[in-house]
Design a protein that fits this description.
173 residues; two-stranded antiparallel ribbon; 5 helices; elongated; single chain
Length: 173
């Protein structure tokens, strides 16, 4: 077990640095993910919430749902664009590598596909990183979408409970 902890401790400082840096510095539509988290914070609902609290929470829910779905759509689209750009660039670079090799080594057998792909990947590192960043943004917004679905379920359940309680109180009076 100590080997696992030792390995984790070696990588943890890098992980922590990368994660914090990404959350505080990477911009999605002009805002950091920390800023977005604050903007889409949902109200707290609990057993002491009343009908008015639910109405206000529902209004907030609708605003947040619109924002989250819009940003999720944007994140999906930008990931797809980044993937397409990366694949196009990889194809161009593969062709360039083959042509360069044939020009510099006439009559010799060309390198294997794995070798060409490795060289092409090294030359397309910026596009690969951009795709990874786009994927990270997508995962962030997918998680926010999941979170708001749970909130909707909670809002619905509390509304049902409070409505039922009000009916019984009305009948009791």
């Amino acid at each position: 077990m100590s080997d696992v902890l030792g390995t984790l401790s070696i990588g943890y400082s890098s992980y922590d640095e990368y994660a914090n840096s990404f959350m505080k510095n990477a911009l999605f539509k002009g805002k950091t993910l920390e800023d977005w988290e604050k903007e889409i914070e949902l109200p707290v609902l609990n057993e002491s919430s009343n009908i008015e609290d639910l109405r206000l929470a529902n209004i907030k829910y609708i605003e947040m749902l619109r924002l989250i779905v819009s940003n999720l759509s944007y994140a999906k689209s930008t990931l797809k664009v980044c993937e397409m750009h990366y694949e196009r660039k990889m194809q161009q670079v593969r062709i360039e590598i083959l042509e360069q090799y044939k020009d510099e080594n006439p009559g010799k057998r060309v390198p294997g596909a794995d070798t060409i792909n490795n060289v092409a990947q090294n030359r397309c590192i910026q596009e690969w990183i951009s795709t990874g960043i786009a994927e990270a943004f997508l995962l962030f917004w997918q998680t926010q979408h999941d979170k708001i679905k749970y909130f909707d379920s909670r809002l619905t359940n509390l509304g049902f409970i409070l409505n039922t309680e009000e009916k019984y109180q009305f009948r009791a009076n």
